[in-house]
Design brief:
Blueprint: H1 2-23, H2 25-45, H3 49-59, H4 63-92, H5 97-125, H6 129-153, H7 157-183, H8 192-226, H9 229-262, H10 267-295, H11 308-340, H12 344-369, H13 371-397, H14 403-427, H15 431-448, H16 454-462
Helix pairs in contact: 1-6, 1-9, 2-4, 2-5, 2-8, 2-9, 3-4, 3-5, 3-9, 4-5, 4-8, 5-6, 5-7, 6-7, 8-9, 8-12, 8-13, 9-10, 9-11, 9-13, 10-11, 10-14, 10-15, 11-13, 12-13, 14-15
Amino acid sequence: MVLLNLLVKPGWVVLENVVQDRLGHEVFGTFTALLTLATIVAAVSDVGTTQLTTKRLAASPGFFTEFFPTLLPLRAGLGVGFLLATVGIGWVLGYRGHWLLLLAITAAGLLLTQYILFLRGVLQAHQRFNLDAVLSVLERLLLLGLVLALLPIGLSLDRYVAVRTVAVGFTFLLLVVLIRRFYGKVALRPRWQQARQVLLESLPLAFITLVYGLNERVDMLMLERLVSSKEASYYAAAYRWVDAVMMYLWTVLPLFFARFAHATGRTQEQQELLWFGQRVVTVPLLFVVGFGLFRGELLFFQFTHSSAQEVARMTQCLQLLFLNVLVHAFFAIYSTLLTSTDHEKPVSWLVTGSIVVNVGLNFVFMPRYGALAGAINTLLCAVVVSAGYLWLVPRRTGVQLPWAMLLRLMLTFSGLCAGWYALRRYAALPWWLEAGLAGLWLLVLVLGLGVVKVNELRQLRRRPPAV
């Protein structure tokens, strides 16, 4: 299922690059700003109920029948309220007329996506991870087909927004049918006392969602408002690949979130999960980041209408943002451990501080350096936040950090970069052969430095298949 995500998401990124190339940097840059605003507000509309529901259901299956008659209408009402808030914020920021209408339609689709994530939390909590993984790519798969169908007949921004809405609507209806089939029909009986309890318990998670959304996406909105739609478009083209790569994290980490929550109070079990998860999360992304650093320009082959200077600008943004991916590859799992074990508040304050720094730096440097400033500021803030995670985990959870493994992983990435640099400088190979040799070199480093031990692989081979 992870492989399915890895195949579909990059395919969608390639196609969305084609869309950006067809629509032009100015038009797509403005749409990117609208999409960013809608994404941030849509994420907040969840008010933390998705993570809370996953945690509660993993610990107590009876939570579904007791609370969902209240949760379902509560989430729907929140969605409508936040849709109106999105349009209001857009008007305050200066969007008018047709752009405001596109913002409303885009926000409605994203709010529906948030409702889908909420319902998928039920599947995750009941350990239906394969079905959840399929549903996580279904919307993108439908959108791939619809956009490909539009290309021969003519692509416009209005048509693009329309097919996005159709894809998310179909996915939502399918998920509702599956939930009813697995768990029966849920009678809607909202109770104010339950709603109040859920909101109070989920607010710390909601605050984390807000600050993470702002921290990751505010740069594109600020670029379009402070600099130009073209700079926002360059940043968006690079960030799109980052988002695709990060889908590996967002596919794997929810599995650990549910496992960490299930093991609450059992420190040794959580430590074993963390030490195992460190390798699962980090190792695959080392190669991806290396490719972005040394061959990032290849990811923009779709931009046939862009100048060499524009492609170079997008490549520079990509390289800086891929370093941000590297930081997340090492340290995002620590945030997952903290938030799954009721330590959301210190995490939220930590990320809030980084947002204040990021926004402040953006105001100072974006007008002069444009998209590059946004990428560098994001990287700096990610480093600061990750250092905070390392400080918080042993103090708040009692789980010991895998320092030796972290050192091995850092040495592995350093060795990979040194080998890739030598290939670029001295070998002059085709990119595909160069990347293949770099991948083999990474495998040698992983085994040679003890990141993965040979006896562990032998144990996996000997283990009988699950029935």
